[in-house]
Amino acid sequence: MRSLLKSRIFWIMVASAVVAALLPAWLSPYMLGVLTSAYYFGVFAMSWDLLFGFAGEVNFGPTFLIGLGAYSAAILNNEFHAPILLCLLAAAATALVGGVLLAVPALRLRGPYFGLVTLVAVLLLQNAIVIFAHFTGGEIGMTVFSVLSIDATINYYYALGFLLVCATLLTLLANSALGLILQASGQDALEASVLGFNVTKHKIAAFCVSAILSGLAGAMLIFYMGAASVGTVIDISIGVQVIIATILGGRRTIIGAAFGAVVLIVATEFLRPLGQLNTFVVSAVALAVILLLPDGVLGVALRTGERQ
Amino acid sequence: MVALQILTDGFAISSLYALGAVGFTLIFGVSGVLNLSHGSIMVVAALIGWYAAGDVGLGTYLGSLVGVTAAVVTAYLTYFVVVRPIQRSRTISHEETEIFVLTGTLLWGIMIQVGMAYLFSDNPVTMRPLIAGVTDVFNVRTPTNEILVAAMCWLVIGLLWLFVNRTDAGKAMQAASINPRGLTLLGYNLSHIYWLVWGIYGVLAGIAGVLLASFLGTGTNNAGQLTASAFSIVVLGGLGSVSGSLVAAYLVGYLETATAYLIAPTLRPIPALILLVIVVYARPQGLLGRR
User: Fold this and answer.
1) Mind listing the pLDDT tens digit for each residue in B196-235?
2) What are the structural domains of chain A?
3) How many CA atoms lie within 13 A of A196 on its CB side?
4) What is the ipTM for the molecules in this complex?
5) Total number of domains in chain B
6) What is the b/e burial string over A114-136, where b = at least 16 CB atoms within 10 angstroms of the residue's CB?
7) pTM across the whole model
8) Do B267 and A131 touch (CB under 8 A)?
9) Which chain A positions have a beta carbon within 8 Å of B86's beta carbon?
10) Residue B267 sits in which domain range?
11) HSE (side-chain half, CA atoms, 13 Å) at A112
């Protein structure tokens, strides 16, 4: 049964990867641009799912990790003209430190308390960026010195490649012993530790993986866009979008989160004529999914197969 | 002189924080719900009250009443459309209910916020003061309205205290927060108590919203900030502890006012946030919380 489930996810991934790789042949550079940011968003959502769906931690501040990565890369690139690769490494390292900082309270606090700490972390980061406006550009944001590429197709493949690597990595991780122990400790930490698993170690590992990938994705996103700003990588509304994407696609499925992100970003693009009501419609759909299909779209599809 | 200014100015804002947080902590204590659409409900009261008072022409007092009614209606909608279906859902496992209520009310709050911005635009609105004029308090010239706002907050909190401790319905509510099953065994209908508590919550959030609109002015863009400060104050004081929330409200209110006066207005929220993180790390149950 498990191997079937595994292979089902595997085949969905292969099929969508092939379709995605062929898309540049048909789509306009504009649509490719939309999908490029959607793919980075997919990585945000997948790394959030590792914490929420598996480790059972309500992290209201995915943008704390994303923003740390994005801004450390941007500052390094701007102040010292460091090459992109070095900036990405620095982004991963900074986000990793942030992840450990978040993991410490997560081990001590229950759901809502931890949720609040993560929310406060985002607010503090946002305030810090405004206070050190000299380095960070404050509320206006900053442009970066280098960009990944100026060609829409190349940027698209960078994003797609990154998404696929992260999806494979996280899916393997989720189906490994680590993923199962994480699920167990997320649902009942006491029982998991009574069974002899080291809950602390596994949760910290989950935070580290999630942080590194979020930070990297944040840095890649700003090197794609050529600018970093509070509104694109830190604002709480971005974090809320990551959460909506994961729940839409289906929590505890990893790639469901990526699908949710792509659907969300593309839908937002198509709903643009609605103007202000755009966000209203997206939130209403997400709320309806929570109420009617709490397992998310992909979650329902996978779990129906499981029962047969 | 500055100290006196901080003392009077901080008192009004702290009282308002206290009123906002009391409703939030009440709903958590009795039904275990952390309502992240709290700020949006306050903004509904402020905007509809402002609209009824000005554009419809009902005047400040009747308009405020309409605003509070709107908040009560929104509170009931929150309960019946979002919270109760999640609590009763069969597909959501019991351990995950809390997370789903948090996410569901968050989305609901965003819907209210965006919907109100669509109807009334996202410009902040200010209601006409309930009383005009200026009074000297310790030689600090204070708008009379500011004193009235603080007094109203305390009046409402006092009435709530009387209701919870001196009436049968209030005592049943207290019992529901301690042991819901025991209360059902005694023949009380829990759903009646939830009706009651969400109604009271709507009144509290509504009054806080209307007073906020007449004291500082507010708009849809403040909804998230209002939820965050109520949540912080309640956690700082201890989830479910009303007296803890009151203490925390004054702590946060004065800390923010002092920062704004003495250091810089731009740094206003930061010391309170840092204090919150420290308290949550060192004493997760909050200042006066029970475990």
Assistant:
1) 999 999 999 999 999 998 888 888 888 888 888 888 898 8
2) 2-13+31-307 (1.10.3470)
3) 0
4) 0.84
5) 1
6) bbbbbbbbbbbbbbebeeeeeeb
7) 0.87
8) yes
9) 290-291
10) 2-282
11) 24
